[in-house]
Amino acid sequence: MAFLAGTTLVWRGSILDRMWALNSSAYSRLSPLGRTVGIPFILLGAILLVAGTGWFRRRTSGWRVAVAIIATQVLGDLVKVFHAQNSSQSDSSP
């Protein structure tokens, strides 16, 4: 999906653009950024392909890439939670 989204953001006007009807709010936020986010999405799709292929072939490198991706996601979620808690605490201060 990341590869597909990146492709439609980099090369606009294809028949694939109709997929954004499924998530028009994401398209309205990502569309102005175009290539700026499209190319990293394509790279993310390639990294996920390498991780998935390695994972299914039971390669150590595939497992490491997959664990790194999952760890990055968990770390990002934790940062978001702590940032939200700190923001709500500072908003309630007199």
Characterize the overall form: flat
Number of strands: 0
**Percentage of helical residues?**
over 70%
> Could you report the average pLDDT, rounded to the nearest whole number?
88
Largest sheet features: none
Q: Segments where pLDDT lies below 50 for 5+ residues?
A: none
What does this structure look like?
It is built from 4 helices and no strands. The chain is mainly alpha-helical. Helix 1 packs antiparallel against helix 3 (35-56) and helix 3 packs across helix 4. The longest helix has 33 residues, at 60-92. The radius of gyration is 18 Å and the shape is flat.
Topology:
Blueprint: H1 2-10, H2 24-30, H3 35-56, H4 60-92
Structure summarized in a few sentences:
The chain has 94 residues and is mostly helical.
